[in-house]
Design a protein that fits this description.
By secondary structure, the protein is mostly beta strands. The protein has one domain. The protein is about 5% helix and about 35% strand. It is built from 1 helix and 7 strands, in the order αβββββββ. The radius of gyration is 14 Å and the shape is globular. The chain starts with a helix and ends with a strand.
Length: about 90
């Protein structure tokens, strides 16, 4: 049976996070953030991953949605809020 420290060490975002509201453009190097959790409904104008291909921007993500991947860039609207989880 795992102890509480094992659960903490495997927890979501144990290395920290960044809460972003508004049109702040985020562009980071590979390995910085592993997930995005949308706090409000968000429709990113830019949303890319270092290890992904496809279209992730111009899609409305409902509040509470979590997207996993090595985040490269993300920009949302003025009243939209999301959390970036550090690796």
């Amino acid at each position: 049976m795992a102890n509480i420290n094992d659960h903490y060490n495997a927890s979501f975002g144990k290395s920290g996070n960044k809460i972003v509201t508004g049109t702040t453009a985020i562009s980071v190097s590979s390995g910085t953030y592993f997930a995005v959790q949308f706090i409000t409904d968000c429709t990113p104008t830019a949303f890319t991953f270092h290890d992904g291909d496809g279209t992730y921007s111009s899609i409305t993500y409902a509040a509470g949605t979590v997207i996993y991947g090595d985040v490269a860039t993300i920009t949302t609207g003025a009243s939209e809020t999301y959390i970036l989880y550090k690796k």
